[in-house]
Design brief:
Distance between the termini: 94 Å
Protein name: Diguanylate cyclase/phosphodiesterase
InterPro entries: Biofilm_reg_signaling (IPR052155), EAL_dom (IPR001633), EAL_sf (IPR035919), GGDEF_dom (IPR000160), Nucleotide_cyclase (IPR029787), Rev_trsase/Diguanyl_cyclase (IPR043128)
Largest sheet: 8 strands, mixed, barrel
Organism: Actinoplanes palleronii
Radius of gyration: 42 Å
Number of strands: 17
Keywords: Membrane, Transmembrane, Transmembrane helix
Length: 746
């Protein structure tokens, strides 16, 4: 209330101008009396602002310098008020005048020190040039209207002339500081805006007051409109300090001022030439007028050329040269701007991350020209699908992004994602080639919980990789369950919290020989999502490294349960446990397995480790050495899902493999399709040629079991024999003799 009350008190200065009340001394005294509370309160609040905590050091330094200016102005006003009560006319310049002038350099320094957006060296040089252009234009005007006439005043006291000329020069410094501040994109926008407005109003008041006197001989009395401008400036300065004092935190967000004030240098050039033309209005067109006109035309052409060059430089700086889409820098800038918009329940903004599937093989097989043709076609498809106002960009390589601001519903974003999936399936014609790609798209929506651009991009990225894990070629919207880091923590906690469980599936002898095996299969009994199959978490565990503790737990728990299993006839029960590629690359794998076997008492010669084909694709020396050591311990090595990958047959000879498991895809249909039968038989013969045991996965009928036995496959596994079951259930089944060669008869 005190702030607004003191501001209202300033309105008293209009009374003399409206009513004609009072002598010159009375009016001057009343003017100083109503100004004093405002200037003193500004100084008091400024001191409080500087002394309170919470300001960043750079901003605190700026307000400290400004506080010196506020104090000088307050002392000047009080000095002027005291002089009003002394006899005689005050001298010019008086002590208060010197104090006002002394305050101006501190105002300039404080404005320049206010924190603003960071700039590199080139940007700072350009900012300085722009500011000097504006000040030079203003200097020409003030020289013609103020400084020049003041210096030519006949018979005046040199001290008076020097002081009178100093005021407009200092106003130019204030103008320089204001322009620099505007072009630097200041922080704490409202407070700085009020302060800048206060300084602007003061400069206008100073200039008009002096110009009216030196050009037209008009002397304004207190209560006239220049004094109203000074009053407005004083009140705006008070509001600036008051607002900054009430503000929480160090600074408010950065303002985008550069685009709105970038015209100022060009406006200063126009002002300068207009002034030259005005002064030369009485000159003949030859020679001065033509030269001025030519200078104006040349400068105008240079300005137009620079504007076009700046626009082109901006376009090149934010555009991907190959596709013409926005580049990573512009996408990041627009994304930051999108996050700054206030959240609205009826409007939804989203980012789509797009990664091309099967792009690398095209580049490798047909060269970069073919790859570039695909990328250009993708860019055209993006432009064709997105709405006006949306932004498509290329982040690099075969990664793209689409920004969808202000959509009426989330369904709109999903429909755009689906249309993009379909559009990107269209083959690309390159010469005689028909190049086909697809896209995996992750969608993340902006909401009140989104902290920053990095989090939003991470969400979209998690959704995109979930698409890739699920088979590629479609889109998915981010949900917290897709957060890789969170899921990784969940998986690791699952081991500690006992959420993992084991099921076991028998592997039986198809030809009635001795021996039976069981495969350990891990499940995740999630406290919220229920029982999760391996497909829901194993691939993620491989990516994050959580497979290491999970794999160790599976091995230990499987051995612990299986060590006591037996059959009525005393047949040996082998235990088969899956080992991931990450586990095989661990230097401590052999020691871990030795420790588990010693701890559980499970015999090494009844343990089989199942590896995927990716492990044996190109094994290094350390991997071969580890597997050989395990084989020497009596542990069997099995290749799982054989035939589905790209393993070279030569590695079957060099690696210590003892068992091949034929993937279920080769078993399905062997009892009805002669070609399928022939392929499966070839795989069996291949395994036998390498003296390996063969296990057929996915046997679901008695006829399939008969066919596999007929072609020489010794072991089988599948729903025809038994579904995966808990350890106790399997122990009971083994003890009853329900698993064995007799199951082939089913």
């Amino acid at each position: 209330m005190a702030v607004w009350g003191s501001g209202a008190l300033l309105g008293v200065i209009v009374v003399p101008g409206v009513t004609g009340w009072g002598t010159d001394l009375q009016v001057r005294t009343m003017n100083d009396l109503v100004f004093a509370p405002v200037t003193l309160m500004t100084a008091a609040l400024g001191l409080r602002l500087v002394l309170k905590g919470g300001l960043q050091p750079s901003e605190r330094r700026a307000w400290l310098v400004l506080e010196v200016a506020f104090l000088l102005q307050g002392v000047a006003r009080m000095t002027s008020l005291v002089r009003d009560f002394l006899p005689g006319m005050p001298p010019y310049p008086s002590v208060s005048d010197y104090l006002y002038v002394l305050a101006i350099p501190f105002l300039v320094a404080g404005l320049v020190l206010l924190p603003a957006a960071r700039r590199n060296r080139a940007e700072r040089v350009k900012l300085l040039i722009d500011s000097l252009i504006i000040v030079a234009g203003a200097c020409m005007a003030l020289w013609y209207l103020e400084i020049g006439p003041i210096l030519q005043t006949p018979g005046a006291d040199p001290v008076v002339i020097a002081f009178s000329a100093t005021v407009p020069v200092l106003d130019l410094l204030v103008l320089f500081a204001l322009v620099t501040l505007l072009l630097r994109r200041p922080k704490a926008g409202v407070a700085v805006g009020l302060l800048g407005a206060a300084m602007t109003v003061n400069v206008v008041a100073d200039s008009t007051y002096t110009i009216a006197y030196v050009q037209f001989g008009v002397y304004f009395q207190p209560g006239s409109w220049p004094f109203l401008l000074w009053a407005a400036g004083a009140f705006l300065a008070l509001l600036a300090v008051h607002h900054r004092l009430r503000q929480d935190g160090a600074t408010s967000g950065e303002r985008r001022s550069r685009g709105r004030f970038g015209w100022l240098p060009y406006g200063a050039v126009v002002l300068a030439y207009a002034l030259i033309a005005f002064v030369a209005r009485d000159q003949s067109m030859y020679p001065l007028g033509g030269m001025i006109l030519g200078g104006i035309v040349i400068t105008s052409l240079v300005i137009v050329r620079q504007m076009f060059a700046q626009r082109e430089n901006r376009r090149l700086a934010v555009t991907d040269p190959l596709t013409g889409l926005s580049n990573r820098a512009l996408i990041a800038e627009l994304l930051s701007e999108m996050l700054r918009q206030p959240h609205r329940d009826d409007r939804h903004s989203a980012v789509l991350l797009i990664d091309l599937d099967r792009f690398k093989p095209i580049n490798d097989a047909y060269g970069h020209e073919a790859g570039d043709a695909v990328l250009k076609a993708v860019a055209a498809a993006l432009r064709a699908v997105i709405r006006t106002g949306d932004t498509a960009g290329r982040l690099g390589g075969d990664e793209f992004a689409v920004l969808l601001p202000g959509m009426p519903s989330r369904e709109v974003a999903e429909s755009i994602a689906q249309r993009l999936v379909e559009a990107l399936r269209t083959p690309v014609i390159f010469g005689d080639l028909l190049l086909g790609v697809e896209a995996s798209i992750g969608v993340a929506f902006l909401d009140e919980t989104t902290a920053d651009t990095a989090q939003l991009i991470a969400h979209a990225d998690a959704a995109m990789y979930a698409v890739k894990r699920a088979g590629r070629g479609h889109y998915r919207v981010y949900t917290p369950e897709l957060d890789t880091r969170a899921r990784d923590a969940e998986l690791r906690d699952a081991v500690e919290n006992g959420e993992l469980v084991l099921h076991f599936q028998p592997v039986v002898n198809l030809v009635g020989g001795d021996g039976i095996a069981v495969e350990a299969l891990v499940r995740w009994n999630h406290p919220v999502r229920g029982l999760q199959m391996p497909g829901a978490f194993i691939e993620l565990a491989e990516e994050t490294g959580a497979i290491i503790p999970i794999g160790e737990w599976v091995l230990r728990e499987a051995c612990r349960q299986a060590v006591g299993w037996s059959t009525p006839t005393g047949e040996k029960v082998w235990l088969s446990v899956n080992v991931s590629a990450r586990q095989v690359t661990q230097a401590g794998l052999v020691d871990t397995i030795r420790e588990v076997l010693a701890e559980t008492g499970f015999p090494a010669d009844r343990l089989v480790l199942e590896l995927t084909e990716s492990v044996i694709l190109q094994p290094d020396e350390q991997t071969v050495a580890r597997l050989s050591t395990l084989r020497e311990m009596g542990i069997g090595i099995s290749v799982d899902d054989f035939g589905t990958g790209y393993a070279a047959l030569s590695y079957l000879r060099t690696l210590p493999v003892s068992i091949l498991k034929i993937d279920r895809s080769f078993v399905d249909g062997i009892d009805t399709d002669p070609d399928t039968y022939a392929v499966a038989e070839a795989l069996v013969r291949l395994a036998r040629a390498y003296r390996l045991h063969v296990v057929a996965e996915g046997i679901e009928t008695a006829e399939q079991a008969r066919c596999m036995a007929e072609m020489g496959c010794t072991y089988g596994q599948g729903y025809h024999f038994a579904r995966p079951m808990s350890g106790p259930a399997l122990a009971d089944l083994l003890a009853s003799g329900g698993v064995g060669s007799q199951m082939v008869a089913r």
